[in-house]
Amino acid sequence: MTRQQFGFLAGFLPVAVWALGGIGVAAAATLAGLVGWLLVRLLDGDAAAPGFADRAERRR
């Protein structure tokens, strides 16, 4: 899958879910996708949980 195809799907799928199930379902699906993405990044070692905490504290 090319980056353009992935970008299309990333933009299209939330709108399709919204159209079929409503804004609440689309928001829940998007949130679930983001949580899944983060978990995979953490499990693969591409991101460290302490790094996210440090970033959040600097913004306060």
Mean pLDDT: 79
Find the structural class using helix and strand composition: mainly alpha
The number of helical elements comes to: 3
Helix percentage range: over 70%
Largest sheet: none
- How much of the residues is beta strand, in percent? under 5%
How many separate structural domains? 1
- Write down the Rg: 15 Å
- The rounded distance between the terminal residues' Cα atoms is 39 Å
Low-confidence stretches: none
Instruction: Name the helix and strand elements from N-terminus to C-terminus, one letter apiece.
Output: HHH
Please tell me about this protein's structure.
- With 60 residues, this protein is mainly alpha-helical.
- It has one domain (3-59).
- Helices cover 87% and strands 0% of the residues.
- It is built from 3 helices and no strands.
- The chain has helices at 3-21, 23-44, 49-59.
- The radius of gyration is 15 Å and the shape is extended.
- The mean pLDDT is 79.
